[in-house]
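Worked example 2:
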Amino acid sequence: MNDFPQIAPMVGYEDVAGAADWLVRAFGFEEVERFDHEGEVVHATLRLGTGVVMLGKPGDSYVNPLRLRQQCQAAARMYSVPWVVDGVWAQVDDVDAHRERARETGATLLGEIEDGPVGRLYRVEDPEGHRWMFAQA
């Protein structure tokens, strides 16, 4: 782990293996490591350029954002906007191609590509309801 950045987001998933595989296909991540416990993947580290994101399974009582919104009105209200709520921001070289790849893989697009203060960007949700923002400087 010596070549990891000084700080990295950690995101909980009910299905870490499935999430890691999907994020590699949809967002172009590279898998760096994967750990299992008793036959179940409980951690994966993914790299995008010089950054990493760590995926983990917090335990059987964990509920992902998508299911939480279905079970809780307050969470549903919080996610009723297209903004990134407790999400991850990442920079990519070609935001148009990246968004198309995500769309083709079944990501939930939260809007069109737009111009933001840090460049062109789009917002997207993965199959477990985590939100991501990808930007091109």
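Helices lie at 16-27, 65-71, 73-78, 95-104. Residues 10-136 form a domain with the 2,3-Dihydroxybiphenyl 1,2-Dioxygenase; domain 1 fold (CATH 3.10.180.10).
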